[in-house]
# Entry
Amino acid sequence: MTDVLTRSQRSYCMSRIQGKDTKPEIVVRRLVFAMGFRYRLHVRKLPGCPDLVFPSRKKVILVHGCFWHRHTCKNGQVIPKTRRAFWSKKLRANKDRDARNRRALRTLGWDIFVVWECQTSRQEWLAERLHSYLET
Ligand SMILES: [Zn+2]
# Structure
């Protein structure tokens, strides 16, 4: 298969893969695995290189760090005190890219479930939500 990713998409994907063993992502993987669902990790040919991919269900789970992906929680509203202009531009670009990737995934027929970092401390609650997302 030809590599259809642009250079910037590819480097984004690589950075995602390098960050793949973050704690929130491990929490989600463990919960989902324990429920008996099997998945693929970081599928590069899909928009945004989704974290967990369930090909037969046509579903993906995205695990988002609150700061980097601008969650509505308080950690997602923080802008570092130095180089504010740089950070607000960068973080806004992240958010825009997330929205673009979600649109592209939906266009391809994928269902999307976003898990925010701050939600991974409520594991029972999260497990229920993940289960009902995946089983339907
Ligand atoms: Zn959050």
Remarks:
- The beta strands are 40-41, 52-54, 59-64, 111-116.
- Residues 66, 71, 73, 75-76, 116-118 surround zinc ion (CB under 6 Å).
- The first strand starts at residue 40 and ends at 41.
